[in-house]
Amino acid sequence: MSDDPSFPAAAAGPIVQLDLREPHRHLVRVTLHITPRSLQPELRLPAWTPGSYLIRDYVRNLEALEVRQGDVPVATVRPAEACWRLELTSLAPLVVGYRLQATELSVRTCHLSADHGFLALAGVVLQVNGERWHPHRLELQLPEGWQAFVPLPSAGGNTWIAADFDRLIDSPIEAGPHPCHRFSVAGAPHRWVTWGADLPADDPAWLADVERVALACCRLMGEPVPASPNYLFVLHLLAEAYGGLEHDHASVLQFGRRALAAPGGRRKLLQLVAHEYLHQWNVRRLRPAELTPIDYDRATIVPGLWFAEGVTSYLDLLLPLAAGVGTEAELLEDLGADLSRYLLTPGRRVQGLRQSAEEAWVKLYRQDASSADSQISYYLKGAVVALVLDLHLRRHGSCLAVVLRALWRSHGAWGRGYRNDDLIAAFAGQAADLAELLPHWLESTDDPDLAGYLADVGLVLVPKPATEPFLGWLLEDAADRAMQLKRVHRNGPAERAQLQPGDELLALDGVRLRRPDDLSLAIGTSTAPLERQLLYCRDGRVRSTGLLPDPPAVASWQLLIDPLLVSEQSGLNRQRWLSLQP
What is the pTM of this model? Predict the structure, then answer.
């Protein structure tokens, strides 16, 4: 990204130097050169990174901070856990040095090893008060044979310029001896970098399909070109992984090699690409007002996360199909899986969609054994509500894409943050009854009329019953671990039997239990189950309890074309819906 004329070739603000030349030590050496603007400047390390709504306390990885003014050490006062205040006698330049432990491999943390380096700069760079809106110069020192991939304008060599602190923090760094593949989307330069393999070399059609998906995102937004003039894709292809994090000019993705090789794996990765790429509009530039500007020091409640993530999660299923790299059958399979997961999550009866968004900081990213019974993901229910909104709008001659484009023109293109009331007004502008329906769907724990809306496009959800009685528990899935309870369903048979997560199952009616197959044989398939005697171990003590299973429950739901609803009109409705046309 060296030819962006909108940024200067040099910067007068802070200089950030990152030394990655000892990757085997997993330590990043950071040197910050500052010319102070006051005699009591403060240095702060962000507590979280945008797009991942959890206080991560990056400061826990920082060590050995020291400040010098010339040859003189500067004393620091620490008013908060991630803040240092300096007491200066002059405004002479400062040099701040520290080290960072980089051992956590995710899209929102830092990882440095002999193979590569990945830096989420929110966890690396100290913010200097008074410097947030000034240019920052980034300089990297790399191991021999490595190169760095940074979504910032280059100043030559291993040096880049960020327009301000926010732009710097929003620029993930991937470094290593990786090949880089260049392609374009509507004339805009794009780069693809993979750590863990060389995906474009292994799959020659990959970049062409990514380009098709990217163009489908542009068409969805009604724009001839991407929002970013230069874009970087970084993929970590690992043994087991799934996730992504969006940036203004980049996406960082993690995906599993086994998952990629499995049936449908390539399609799932393309959906992840679509999700993060669409975020360059929805959430990065079309941004909730609560994140304009971003407060890096504390949690900010964002009621509109259901729109930012839920709408994007719904559209990422449709975009590959609209791009011509998927089939209707695959879309119905994937959408059906999401609807099934939603209907099988009891927490949707406890937590509403708006509440889910507002509690993101304390619940979604802090899952425990009871989470499924007490909460619903705003990604998942947000996608379900987005589906319902899309199909409802189609009854009124409009669609979700029309609302998304209108919000982009009224807010995103101008950098205006939106609030929940703005979203409701935008939807109600296309269908007046949504002024009442949408707030109800956001606040209520009732399910929307899924069956009615799916019927509009000739679809039906069909339940698939389980083959065994319902026991109300989930076992740990580790093959080398004893039969231990991972989850106990609320109001289920296991809870009534006073079992709890962590209990080890020993025997049922005197029959020894060593693996799940033993349990299936002992329980049988009777639809009128009788009480059984369960022997289990808790805290090193063997105990006994009576377990009365419930009849078999719904194991999953399948989304199918309903033969009773097949008609020319339903087929036309479905075709226009799947192609993202009004």
Answer: 0.95
